[in-house]
Structure formats: C-alpha cells, structure tokens
Design goal:
Layout (H helix, E strand, L loop, with lengths): L4 H11 L3 H7 L6 E5 L20 E4 L9 H4 L3 E3 L7 H8 L7 E4 L6 H9 L5 E5 L6 H11 L4 E4 L13 E7 L20 H18 L3 E11 L8 H10 L2 E4 L10 E4 L6 E5 L9 E8 L20 H10 L5 E6 L2 E6 L3 H10 L2 E3 L2 E7 L2 E4 L15 E4 L1 H8 L12 E7 L2 E8 L4 E3 L13
Helix pairs in contact: 4-5
This protein binds S-adenosylmethionine.
C-alpha cells in the first residue's frame, strides 16, 4: 500500500511521526473489537484484551463470522473499530451523565457512536440519531432498534433543518464525513479515492455542517467533533475554524500515556485534539476534539407549530397493558404504529417531531388489528415486554433458520404471538397458527448468505 506523499509529509513535519513504523502498521492485520450492550451483554466468541479507553469492549484474537452468531442479531454487542470508542471517554469526561441530557448524533449511520451514546445516557434522557443520506437510514434504524435502548430516536434530516431547534441540545456529536485516510488499512479502496481536492472538499462540507448545526447547541453545551482522517485540514485546522467563527472553547481530556494516543494543538487557538495512529494504538486512524459553547446566538423566534401525535384509543391502551410494562411511559400513534417514550422527554420528542423527519421513535409497540395486537419487530429488543409474553428458547441452528426466514418447527409452543429466543436473548416475533409458524422477522433484516 502506498500512502499518499502529502499525508506522509504532513505527519512528518507536524507530528514527528515515525514514518517507517506508520507505514509498517499498514501491512499488519486490522484488530477486531466488539462493544457489549450493557442491557444484554453476551457474545458467542472468546475475548482477548479489553479496549483501554472505554468500558465493556474487547479485542478478539481473530475475526470470526459474526453473521453466524445469533447473539450478534439479538443486539448483544456491536462490532466497532476500537479508536472510535474514544467517544465514550470524551463524553463521560465532559458531561454529567447523571442529569437529563438531550443529545444529537448528527452524522449517525451506521450507528457505532449512537449505540455507544445510547448506553451512556440515563432513561430520562433522549438521543437523536440523525442521518441525512436516506439510503443509509435503514442500517441505522436496524442497529438502534436491536440495541434496544428506550431513550433514542432516529431522524433523516439535513443539518440545515436543525435551525428549527435553536439552543436545544446539551451535547452534539459530529462524526463528520471525511476523506477517510484513517481507514486505509481497513478499506483498501479508500486510498484510490483519496486526493488533496477531496480533503478540501470534505473540509468545506465539515464547515457547512457545523455552521448549520451549532445554533441548535445550548449555552454550556458540549460539541464532540471527530473524523477518521489524518489531514490537518479536517482536524486541527477545523478546530481553529470552529474557535474563530463560533463561541467555542476547547476542552482538554485526560488520557493515559500507555494508551499511545497523541495529543495535538491547533496552530492558532491551541485547541486540544486527540489522534490515534495505528502504529501507536491498537485501532485505526482517528481524530477527536471537544468544545464547550460559551454563549448563544440570537435566534429567530421559532414559529413551528408542534405536530401533535394522535392519542391512542382505550382499546389500544388495554391491549398494551397485556404486552408491556407501561410505567412512566407516554403512548401515541405514529403513522399506523403505537409508539412511546419516557414521560420525561415528551416535550422534546414533540419538538423534534415538529422539526425533523422522524424514522424511529424511542419505541414502537405495534398495531391493534381487529382483536389481534400485532407486536412491532422493534419491540422484541426492548426490555419493557411483560413476563406474561411466551418465549421459546432454541438452539443456534434453529435460531439461524429463523433469522434466514427458513421454515422451522418447535416441539411445543402455544398459539398466537410469542418470542423466539437464543440463550434467553430475544431474536424476534413469531405467530403459531397450530399447523404452522409464521415468522415475523423483518424480511429486509434476514440473513441472505450461508457463510461457513
Ligand atoms: N457516526 C457513524 C458511526 O459511528 O457509525 C459514522 C458516521 S460517518 C463517519 C459520516 C456520516 O455522515 C455518514 O453516515 C454520511 O452519510 C453522513 N453525511 C454525508 N454527508 C453529510 C452531510 N452533508 N451532512 C451530514 N452528514 C453527512
């Protein structure tokens, strides 16, 4: 692999990088790491060392076939590159996680940072995971639904639309689209698409995204900015741009020397940045910087009318109580689904719904169809389901048949809707009709390939 000269020169001149070690690290195997879901921590593979700058995450001795592990499909863990898990340290060192927090993950698909953030927030809080590119929304929704947190919603809006939510968020995570040089080792084709013009193009886009989003950050709110690029234009110089154009103050983080993270300082404002180099840390190239917003801009009065949700009917309410534990929850009708959220965020969910394009509310429960209450696929992964709901625990091979939507049988199961589980973790819904079982696993989530 030939790393572009412009990157090499910049690293040599500005960060005293040992270029032969940096280049050699690009011929080594990419470490594989997983982060466990604190709501249902389990994984079908043996762990190696833990990832030092985060909790609940481990390296694996080799890359297994995750598709064949039903626990992967149950949302028990997320396969995530280790460096990017540094967002946890940035978040926990800059934010009081015991408080109610309204958090935006502005560039969220496929959901690595969002699943991490959802696990750091308490149940009174709300995470808005936004992805502007609509073709990337389904993977984000899938990952967030399976993660099963009750505090997160998914939106599909342009950064410009956030001007409708002035001074709204306590924290904003902007994992910006970038030139991707930090991923050269992982995605070899990234090198073919790299060019100086593209770095500049990405930088202008990063500036636009931040300028659009920042009015939605509250005073004293925290901005966490990250990229997977080595280019200063997208990292330290971007920090200077932010300090120059917005009321932002850089925040220093505490790291440990043995982790091998490189602390950098931007040229003009000496903003603190944190770089991950693959020859110094066990992970891919990554950059992160944190800021506090010191004052708020004048904003136009928000004339948006709240798009009020439709209330649920008395029959729907009765059906719900048989299926889920309803304490502290508010229920509404969203399109045809009965959905809900914690009462602590009713105001914020309504505000976000009036301003942005909603793809998933904190939880979706299902629909009353005649006398039958049809549970929503997402509900299977949220631990509000009543103990009265019947579950059938199956072995790995039956679990995989279910996940492929192939026919399968169960020795004895009662009629009606029930959950299929593997090692007691929910995989999805099925309906037993007596002579056959209807598989309610969503068709677009099914495993398509046989992998051995
Ligand atoms: N945070 C994600 C994670 O941890 O899984 C990865 C995000 S990726 C680095 C950047 C995201 O920004 C992509 O999903 C991309 O679709 C989105 N994006 C692309 N153009 C954008 C734009 N103009 N405004 C906002 N987001 C954009």
């Amino acid at each position: 692999m030939k790393i572009p000269e412009q990157i090499i020169n910049q690293l040599k001149e500005n960060f005293n990088t040992d270029i032969s070690e940096f280049e050699a690290s690009h011929t080594q195997t990419v470490p594989v790491s997983v982060r466990l879901n604190p709501l249902k921590p389990a994984c079908g593979f043996e762990f190696g060392e833990s990832v030092p700058w985060t909790s609940n995450a481990f390296y694996l001795p080799e890359r297994p076939i995750f598709t064949n592990d039903p626990l992967f499909h149950a949302g028990c863990y997320y396969v995530q590159e280790a460096s990017s898990m540094f967002v946890e340290l940035a978040f926990t060192q800059t934010v009081d996680t015991s408080k109610k927090l309204i958090v935006l993950d502005a560039c969220a698909a496929p959901g690595g940072k969002s699943t991490l953030l959802a696990s750091l927030l308490n149940e009174k809080s709300l995470l808005v995971s936004n992805e502007v590119i609509s073709t990337r929304v389904p993977v984000l929704t899938h990952n967030m639904a399976k993660w099963g947190s009750l505090n997160s919603m998914v939106t599909n809006s342009d950064p410009k639309d956030f001007s409708r939510l002035p001074n709204f968020f306590d924290v904003m995570v902007v994992d910006a689209p970038c030139s991707g040089s930090g991923l050269f080792r992982k995605q070899e084709d990234a090198i073919e698409h790299w060019s100086e013009e593209n770095v500049n193009h990405c930088n202008l886009r990063q500036q636009r995204i931040l300028a659009d989003l920042l009015p939605a950050l509250k005073e004293d709110g925290v901005l966490i900015y990250s990229t997977c690029s080595y280019s200063m234009e997208e990292n330290e110089n971007m920090c200077d741009y932010l300090c120059e154009h917005f009321p932002l103050e850089s925040i220093q983080l505490k790291t440990q020397a043995e982790w091998g993270i490189t602390e950098t300082h931007s040229t003009k404002h000496k903003a603190h940045g944190y770089r991950f180099f693959p020859h110094l840390t066990q992970g891919e190239g990554f950059f992160l910087a944190c800021f506090k917003k010191k004052s708020i801009e004048e904003v136009n009065p928000n004339r948006n009318q709240h798009k009020l949700f439709k209330k649920i009917s008395a029959d729907e309410n009765d059906s719900l109580k048989k299926l889920i534990n309803t304490d502290n929850l508010d229920f509404v009708t969203f399109y045809d689904d009965i959905c809900g959220f914690n009462k602590s965020v009713t105001y914020e969910v309504n505000k976000v719904t009036s301003a942005l394009k909603i793809k998933k509310l904190p939880f979706h429960i299902g629909q009353l169809k005649g006398k039958d209450f049809v549970p929503h696929p997402y509900l299977a992964y949220q631990n509000i389901i009543s103990n009265a709901v019947i579950k059938s625990d199956v072995d790995a091979s039956t679990a995989l048949q279910y996940l492929r939507k192939q026919p399968f049988t169960l020795p004895d199961s009662s009629n009606g809707f029930s959950l299929l589980t593997y090692k007691n973790f929910n995989l999805g819904w099925m309906k037993n009709l007596g002579n056959r079982i209807n598989n309610y696993y969503p068709a677009d989530w099914r495993i398509l390939k046989e992998i051995f």
